[in-house]
Amino acid sequence: MNQFQFTRANTPLAAVSAVSKENGAYFLAGGTNLIDLVKREVIIPERLVDINRLPLATIEETTSGIRIGAMAKNSAVADHPLIKKYFPLLSMALNAGASAQLRNMATVGGNMMQRTRCPYFYDHSMPCNKRGPIQSGPSKGQPNGPSGCGAIGGVNRMHAIFGTSEKCIAVHPSDMCIALAALDARVNVTGPKGNRSIAFAEFHRLPGDAPQKDNTLLPGELILSVDVPKNELGKYSHYLKVRDRASYAFALVSVGVAADMKGKTIQDIRLAMGGVAHKPWRLAEAEGYLKGKEATLENFRQAATLAMQGAKGYGENDFKLTLAPNSIIEALQIATQTV
Amino acid sequence: MDNENNAGEPESTGASRRTFLKQSSALAAFALTPPAAVHSVEKGLDEKVAVAFEQQPLRVQINGVAQQLSVEPRVTLLDLLREQLNLNGTKKGCDHGQCGACTVHVDGQRVNSCLTLALTTEGCKVTTIEGMGSVEKLHPMQEAFIKHDGFQCGYCTPGQIMSAVACINEGHANSPDEVREYMSGNICRCGAYANIVEAIMEVKSKGGRI
């Protein structure tokens, strides 16, 4: 690993100030992705600001929902009685991610900040627009590698079918974020310009012309907590993760479902997919279609057809055009207990 | 590509601190005793000078022993254990958090020591395989692994045992399926998986924390 400087921050203000002071400074939370990126020299930091001592690990009830501290560990959130009670979808999604060891290290804030697992991003001898511009800096000697997208026309079995651009077809890797997107969470951040709150749907972004930007955080901004509003969607939940082995693998396609049912009628429903886009992919049209309808296979098929509008394969990932709708139907059947 | 090799970098943009240290220590050495200095640079003495500048203090308890250490920020807990403290029971497998061979407990929680910077364990209690049992009296999980032939070459075994103990203490060893799921972060290519599950289920059946 390259050498870097190390600072321990004890308050959010000190952390923001330390990261804002110089180029090439990064917040270090659980480190499960960042340290790997530093080892692989995809990122060569000048300084890591350790935020593990910040008092941001609590999970508590608020008047409108549950507030999860950004430094809460993934395992602690997944096993927390409040999360299991109100948001079983979130608990399921967290437990579907990574391994027990990594869930003990990874934090909620860090999980939201993890980078894509696209192999072209990790190999800096290969072209990648996502890696290219962001790590650059005349004083850093950063290994940007060639620009372009190796995955378009290359090995793209794991890649996106929605919201892609000609610059990037990488997918967002988190399971937790799929659940948070479905549950209409909000992200509370602080930064050099003060505090603000970001709707979860607005937090991550599509690649467009700037795939190096994963999210809408401004320079120096630190995630403080995530608010998940209480709702009636808890009981009928399921997180379906389709992957190459039974455990400890990234999703080919994942589907998060949370529904409010009255008898066989769907009162309200939330649907989001993972492994298919540069950000958690919310299925708004399918949700709209299913509201007020009976939970039947026919209706689920129609919802899945609506959800797949605009999907586009890139060769090796064409199978996702079939896998995704089938996964939506299966997740809906399991969540609504109509299998 | 080596980021330390930034010769030709315009000075106005600010050479890296490391480059500065290398250059300044080399220059100082040249100014003092040129022939010896040239020799010392060749021997990597400038690296040693840089290291001396960059180490930071670390207080950590490892297997019940309080340690006062001096550590570079880039040193992982895994490398600290193996290289500095000669605790070679913890194994370096993939070094990228994918195989679990480096699993240790930090404050009772199992983690991948290869992705844990040593300096982030300030004030923590670390337990490695050396802290589990002794030659005279093995830990019950070590005994169960031997009884059920839960290892072949043995390289992944320390990590498997650290994970197995945590698996029970976390309350995630209630069925063979649950054990498989919660042991999935320990990946080896050998055929001992079934025997590992048997070993864990047997220790679990005896009840209590271990």
Strand and helix layout:
The complex is a heterodimer of chains A (339) and B (210).
Chain A: E1 5-8, H1 12-20, E2 25-28, H2 34-39, E3 47-50, E4 59-61, E5 65-69, H3 74-78, H4 81-86, H5 88-95, H6 100-105, H7 108-113, H8 119-122, H9 176-182, E6 186-191, E7 194-199, H10 200-203, E8 222-229, E9 236-242, E10 253-262, E11 265-274, E12 281-282, H11 284-290, H12 297-307, H13 320-335
Helix pairs in contact in A: 5-9, 11-12, 12-13
Chain B: H1 17-32, H2 34-42, H3 45-54, E1 56-62, E2 65-71, H4 77-84, E3 103-106, E4 109-112, E5 125-127, H5 140-147, H6 157-169, H7 176-182, H8 193-205
Parallel strand pairs in B: 1-5
Antiparallel strand pairs in B: 1-2, 3-4, 3-5
Helix pairs in contact in B: 1-2, 1-3, 5-8, 6-8
Question: What structural keywords apply?
Answer:
heterodimer; A: 339 residues; alpha+beta; 5-stranded antiparallel β-sheet; 4-stranded antiparallel β-sheet; 13 helices; B: 210 residues; 8 helices; 5 strands; 40% helix; elongated; disordered N terminus; FAD-bd_PCMH-like_sf (chain A)
What do you see in this structure?
Chain A: This is Xanthine dehydrogenase family protein subunit M. Chain A: Keywords: FAD, Flavoprotein. Chain A has 339 residues and is α+β, with helices and mostly antiparallel strands. Helices cover 28% and strands 20% of the residues of chain A. Chain A has helices spanning 12-20, 34-39, 74-78, 81-86, 88-95, 100-105, 108-113, 119-122, 176-182, 200-203, 284-290, 297-307, 320-335; strands at 5-8, 25-28, 47-50, 59-61, 65-69, 186-191, 194-199, 222-229, 236-242, 253-262, 265-274, 281-282. Chain A has a 5-stranded antiparallel β-sheet. Chain A has a 4-stranded antiparallel β-sheet with strand order 9-10-11-12, sandwiched between helices. A 3-stranded parallel β-sheet of chain A has the order 1-3-2, with helices on one face. The model of chain A is unreliable at 134-139 (pLDDT under 50). Helix content of chain B is 40%, strand content 12%. Chain B has 8 helices and 5 strands; from the N terminus they run αααββαβββαααα. In chain B, α6 (157-169) runs parallel beside α8 (193-205). The relative contact order of chain B is 0.10. Mean pLDDT of chain B is 84; it is low at 1-15 and 17-22. At the A-B interface, β1, α2 and α6 of A face β4, α6 and α7 of B.
